[in-house]
Design a protein that fits this description.
Length: 306
């Protein structure tokens, strides 16, 4: 089987079969990662450039490890130490890189739509590693993989996405993916951090009471407050946010049931999650990080037509 698309620009562009194929392929690569020799020669003749115009730790390391596990040749590009800092345009930068015979570009950019722009102008396959407040498709895929691994299904699953929905590309990609795979979604957070008309636009429920959202869900995917994207104060203080929407062990124990806690990282400890939750038995945060490598291996492998 093959993907229906040449690029991975967003979950919006994937079919249900595409998502299923990526998750099934990731299962096989996760098995590879448990072996003593964690490397396969699948992309031995493929050159991939990691083009990061925004800071990243987990996503960048995860992609680079996935590429090296597949035996690809890897080039790393950081905008702050390149000619982009001298005013070189995005298209010029990429065309210069492509003249070095690059097959695939993994790209993170602060401007929404930057990977889509590139996909129209260059022949290489593009993987969106996060564009502005638009999408972060591989994060949604690894989140789905982690949920399915833990709970055995996505269809009919009740997922609460909690926190800064307004500025989160992870939230949008998760909503697209979970709706396509038949899950139910509730989003929760302060009214100032939830976009207007989102219920009608994306067929999700909105809940402003954190405890009610947690009592309803099987999985809570908790998002970071993205202060760097907020032009004005949208709540009084981080302490106030923690009191109203922070998840602690006492709150989880009061629910009378077990739920799965997820977080795309980085975690603001003591704001959206207390440490006894982030590191506790309900949390699968580290499983998400581990699964990210297998999922990204699957995406690169399938896009390369290997």
């Amino acid at each position: 089987m093959k993907l229906s698309t040449k690029h991975l620009l967003g979950i919006k562009d994937l079919t249900r079969d595409d998502i299923q194929l990526i998750l099934t392929t990731a299962e096989q690569f996760k098995e590879v990662l448990q072996r003593p020799v964690k490397k396969v020669p699948s992309l031995r003749d493929v050159t991939i450039v990691n083009l990061f115009y925004e800071n990243s730790t987990r996503t960048r390391m995860s992609f680079e490890l996935a590429e090296r596990r597949l035996s690809a040749d890897v080039l790393n590009f950081a905008a702050t130490t390149s000619s982009a800092a001298k005013g070189e345009t995005l298209l010029d930068t990429v065309n210069n890189i492509l003249s070095m015979k690059v097959d695939m570009v993994v790209m993170r950019h602060s401007a929404s739509g930057a990977p889509h722009f590139l996909a129209k102008h260059i022949p290489a396959a593009i993987v969106n590693a996060g564009d502005g407040i638009n999408e972060h498709p591989t994060q949604a895929l690894l989140d789905a993989f982690s949920m399915r691994e833990k709970l055995g299904k996505l269809e009919g699953l009740k997922v609460a996405i909690i926190g800064d929905i307004m500025h989160s590309r992870v939230a949008l990609s998760n909503m697209y993916l979970l709706r396509k795979m038949g899950a139910e979604i509730t989003i929760a957070g302060p009214p100032t951090l939830i976009p207007k008309y989102i219920e009608e636009a994306l067929d999700v429920r909105v809940e402003y009471n954190l405890k009610k959202a947690l009592q309803w869900c099987d999985v809570a995917n908790v998002l970071r407050i993205q202060l760097e994207r907020q032009n004005q104060p949208l709540f009084s203080s981080l302490r106030e946010y923690n009191l109203a929407y922070g998840i602690n062990r006492r709150l989880l124990e009061s629910l009378g049931k077990e739920i799965v806690i997820m977080h795309p990282g980085p975690i603001n400890r003591g704001v959206e999650l207390d440490s006894d939750v982030a590191d506790g038995p309900f949390s699968i945060v580290l499983n998400q990080v581990e699964n990210g490598v297998a999922v990204r291996m699957a995406v690169l492998y399938l896009l390369a037509g290997a």
